[in-house]
Amino acid sequence: MPTATRTPLFKPRTLSFLRALKRNNDRAWFAEHKEEYLRDVHQPMLDFVAWVASELPAFAPELEASPRTSLFRIYRDTRFSADKTPFKTQVGAIFPQRGLHRNVSACLYVEIGPAGAMIFGGIYKPERSELLAIREHIARTHRRLRALLEAPAFKRTVGAMEGDALQRVPPGYAPDHPAAEYLKFRQFLLGKEYPAAFATSPEFPAEILRLFRRMAPVVAYLNEPLLAAERARDPLAERSPRREPKRVSRLIG
User: Fold this and answer.
1) CATH number of the domain that 104 lies in?
2) Which of 19, 59, 181, 206 makes a 20 to 30 Å CA pair with 49?
3) In the chain, what percentage of residues exceed pLDDT 90?
4) pTM above 0.85, yes or no
5) Number of domains the chain contains
C-alpha cells in the first residue's frame, strides 16, 4: 500500500515563484518567467496530484485525482472582478467525487501560496438546490453526521465543521430539531491552515494524509444526496458526469 513520502512535495522555489508573481502580477513578467513557472509550480502540482492518486484508493476510492479534474488554470477570470490582475498567486488541487462535476461535489482540497497552506474538505458554496438536498439529508440522517464529527479522533485531527451559517434554523425545520446546528450551515468546511513554509517540509505529505483520511467520510456523507440527485436526473451520470460551464474554483476564488 502506498505510504506518505518523507520527501517534500514542494520546494522553496515554488513559494519563491508565487511570491515573485504576487509582486509582478502582469502578463509581460509571466511570459518572461514561464519556464520557471512550468518547472517550479506546474510540474510539482502534477507530481502532487499523481501522488494523491496513488494514496486515495486506500481510503477514498470514490474521489478522483487527475490533472484534468484536480488542477486549476493559473489565469484568473477577471470579467466580473474589480481586481484585474491576470494571475492567481496561489495554486490548489481539488479531489471531487467521481460522477459529480468538481463545481458540485464536496471534495478534498489542498492549496499553497505566499499567504499560507490549506488542507481542506467539504463544500464551499453549494447552489440552492444542492444546499436544500444536503439539509434534507442531514435532517434524516443527522445521527450519522454527528457520529462522524464528534468522533474523538476526528476532533483531535480536524476540529469542528465550520462555514457561513444562518442565525436561525431554516424554514421547514423545527427550531428544536436535533440537527439544528448543522441545518443552519450554508457552507460545510473542514480542515486546517498552516504557514506557507510548512508546504515545503517533509511533514506536509503525512499531514495531508492524516487530515484526508479523517475528512473523507464526511465528504462522502455530504456527497450522498448530491449523487442521488445526479442519478435521478441522469441514470448514466456515474459513467458520464454532468458538465456545467466552467467556473472559478469555489475554494480558491
Assistant:
1) 3.30.930
2) 19
3) 85
4) yes
5) 1
